[in-house]
Write a structure and sequence with these properties.
homodimer, 268 residues, alpha+beta, oxygen-dependent coproporphyrinogen oxidase, seven-stranded antiparallel sheet, 8 helices
Chain lengths: 268, 268
Amino acid sequence: MTNEQKMVKKSFLNLRDNLVKSFEKIDGGKFNFKSWKHSGSGGGTMAIIKGKVIEKGGVNISTVGGQFSESMRSRIPGAKEDPSYWATGISVVIHPKSPLVPSMHFNTRYLNTTKKWFGGGMDVTPSNKFEKEKKTFHQKLKKHCDNHNINYYKDHKKWCDEYFYIKHRKEPRGIGGIFFDYLNTEDFKKDFSYVKDTGKLFYNYSNYIIEKYKDHDWNEKDRIRQLRKRSRYVEFNLLYDRGTKFGLETGGNVEAILMSMPPIASWD
Amino acid sequence: MTNEQKMVKKSFLNLRDNLVKSFEKIDGGKFNFKSWKHSGSGGGTMAIIKGKVIEKGGVNISTVGGQFSESMRSRIPGAKEDPSYWATGISVVIHPKSPLVPSMHFNTRYLNTTKKWFGGGMDVTPSNKFEKEKKTFHQKLKKHCDNHNINYYKDHKKWCDEYFYIKHRKEPRGIGGIFFDYLNTEDFKKDFSYVKDTGKLFYNYSNYIIEKYKDHDWNEKDRIRQLRKRSRYVEFNLLYDRGTKFGLETGGNVEAILMSMPPIASWD
C-alpha cells in the first residue's frame, strides 16, 4: 500500500469506529461484526445492528484488490491500460424504527487503477413531511461543500438528484443530498479533506436527527407510510444502484451488498 | 384481429373471470378493477384483491400492439423483418396470508410478430416445508404435460428451474413448476390446448391448495419465515425477471408490472 492508500484506509476505519460507537450509544444495542474475504485479495467487515431505535443499520468497510473483468475494463477509468485495481471504502445505511427519522445513506471510497479518484456522497430518505428539516439538511450540506469548493454543492447536489431518481415511478428516492465520483483535482490532500469532512458531516447529522426525533410519538399511519417508502428504496437499490449491480455481478459478498435493504417493506 | 387472436384473447378473459370468481369465493373479499392504456395501442385491466385469505393477489389481462424499439428488434423472433407486434396475455400472482399456503404465479401469452408463439408457465413458492405437496404438485404438472407432449414436463420443468433461480443467492425462487416460451409446433390448436390446460391446472391447483391450508394454525415463526422468503421473491422479480425488466424499460404500466410484489417483505 502507498502512503495515501494507508491514510485513506485508516481514516475510513476511524470513521467506522466512531459511527459504531455513537449508534450503539443512541440505540442501546450492539453491532454484530462479520468479516468476509474478497474473491481477489483483501476483504471487508460488515457491522449490523438490529435495535430499538435503529431498526436495521449497517456499516461496511472493505479494502480489496484484483483485476477488472474484460467487460468492466472499458467502463472504469484507467483500467484499459492495466486491469489491476485497488479500492477501499466505507458504506453506511441506517433504517430507523421511528417513521419520523429518515433512512440515511452515506459512502465514500478511494479507487486506484492507473488512475486514482474518490467517490461518495450522502442522502436522506424521510417518509413523512420533512420540509423544515430538508432545508436545514441542505444548508448543512452547502456549508460543508462551500468550505472546499464553491461549485461542489451545486454540482454534487445535482449529481445526487439525478442518481437517486426512481425512473419508472418518476419520483426521487428521497430529499437529495450530495453525490460525487471520479474526484481528482490532482491535490490529494484537498480531495481527501473533502471526503473526510463528508464523513464527519454524516456522523454529526445522523446523530443529530436521530436524537431529535427518536422519542417523538408516531402512529400506525406514519408506520404504513414508512413501510411503503421503504419499498421504493428497495426498487431503487435493486433496479438502479450501480454499487448493488456491480457487487452482485462481480460476485461480491451478498450479505454486505444487500445490507442496505430495509428490515421490512410493503407494497400493499 | 385474426380468428386465432380473438380465440386466445377470449379464452384468457374467460380464465380471468373464473379465477376472480373463485378467489373471491375463497377469500370473501372483492377484487378491485383498474384499466390502463398501452403507449402503443390497446391496454389491459388489472384486478387486485387485498383480503383475509389472499393477503395480496393480482390478475392482469392485456392485449396490446405497437412497434418494437430498435434495441428490442434483434432480441425478439421475427421482429427484425418487421417491428410490429401484437400480444395478449394473462398474468396472476397470489400472496396468501397464511404462511402454510405458497405464493403462486401463473402467466400465459400469445405473441405475434412476423412469427407467432405462446409463452407461459406456473410455479409455486412456499416458505415452509412443503415436501409432500411438492411431490403432488409435480405429479399434477407431469400428468398435465404428458397429455400434450411426452417431452414437455422434462423440458418445461428444466426451463422453469433455470429461469426462477436467484443467481446471487445460489438458490431457487420456489419449488419449480413449468415454464415455456417460443412455443409453436405449427399446430395452433394443439399449442393453444396446452396453454388453456395450463390455465385450468393453475385454477384447480390454486383453489385446491388454498382451501386445504387456509384455516390451519400457524405461528409467528412461520410468518417471519414467510416474510423473509418474500424478500427473495422481490429480489428475483426486480433483478432477473424478464417481464418486469421489459415492462419497466418499455414504459409499461408500473402498477400492473409491480402487482407481483408481495404486500410485505422482510430483510431482517
